[in-house]
Amino acid sequence: MPSPSTGSGPARPADVTEPGAHLGRRLGALVIDWVIASLISAGFFQYHPMATLAVFGAMTFLLLATLGATIGHRLFGLRVYRMATGTAPIGPVQSLIRTACLLLLIPVAVAGADGRGLHDTWAGTFIDRFAARATPPSAPSGPRPGPSASSRG
Questions:
Q1: What is this entry's stated membrane topology (predicted)?
Q2: Distances (CA, A) of 109 to 17, 71, 72, 79, 120
């Protein structure tokens, strides 16, 4: 299975020695997601601070569990992967843990030796650049079967 950042193999805990997604990209994605949550809160909940936090949390949980990335992540070319397998989306349990820790803010600000925030460490996830793939990882690479140029007549 291709690695999210290099396409060469699955990312494993030993492979993650520095964050693949630089802090600037992660902060930019966070700002985009917060602005979207704020706009929704302003439009439907009179911009109440707890409503903004709830919208941000719900949006983050749902998008990470189903797609592996929030809107901000996608705009900055990021995706959240399972640490054990290097796959995305991460699923509802890991998304819930990661989102709950993200809302606490302290685990996000504290990074481990591998560069991941505590919210990623506790959820068993990591964030990295999104590698767009032309074919799924299980599909064979090489020329696709089909009519050759000489058989088209």
A1: Multi-pass membrane protein
A2: 18, 21, 18, 19, 11
